[in-house]
Structure prediction request, 339 residues.
Amino acid sequence: MVNKQYNKEIEELTVNLEGEYWSTYVDIQMYIMAANIPHKDQIRIVQDSALILNEAMENGNAVKEVLGERTTEYCENAIKEINQILSSKDKLLMSLEKLLFTVSAIFSLFSSLLIIDFIFSRNIVLQSNGDVKIEVIQILQLVILSIWFLLINKTNKKLKTPSFIKKTIIFIIFIISLFIFSLIIFSIFDTIAPESLFLNPYLLLIITTISIIITYFFSKWMDKNGR
Amino acid sequence: MATGQLLKGVLEGCILGIISKKETYGYEIVEYLHRYGFDDILEGTVYPILLRLEKRGSLSSEYRKSEIGPMRKYVTITEVGTKELGEFQESWIQLQRAVKLSTCETIINDLD
Prediction:
């Protein structure tokens, strides 16, 4: 409910932004949402920045005249102010929040893999037809990928149209890294039949985890470089 | 105009002073600062200061539509802010006197 209200407010604020005002807003949003500060402060800064850009556009002032030469410097100053005021309790809560997010991501992956293992070890759903099994596993893998895709976009979904291109690039990188690591693993264990490898939930977990780590660091790098 | 660290400290007090006069918003604060002689100040410089003051409890803010239409974040000074402003004014008077005495040639000569 709160998010819906917030989405509505931010949409009202950004609906008229055009050109450099809109692209600067997107840059600020990306930078701030990736910053290590409480979520409520991230929202506050993004919202205030949207107001500043709106006002600038209405008054015909260029972005540089309002925010300075470098938008990242503006963002860094705002983040610095928040960090200076944060209490140790706030910092602890932030760490716990991150830990919880990581644990829940790993748990959701692991539980999905256990379900796969359960279904195929008991032949509950399918008889032993190799091709159909692989197809179903691939579908389940896609479900896992989708869960992860939703998780990495959890923050962005709270804001209006962060960047469709960025989302797509992250997703493509994730898929590519998954295939590369699958190939590496398969080449290491080439004596084992591919079907049995696919059925091994722990191996699948390793592949997916490595892919997630790559995606995570890549998206962080993209955020830092303002792409 | 003063630059760097000195300006940074002074600006906080000046912004509090402007807000103490009336309820206002970011763009208007910058306009006042320009009028008073802070020519190079941008809204991007003022915003982090407003953020700091608000987090410290010196200001309170409210988002609402202005009379002419656009949504704005209006800020007002709190009791904490008023107290801080008083302290800033005292410190500034002392600093001003100290700087004047230190840099005024005739007084330095008298000391000799």
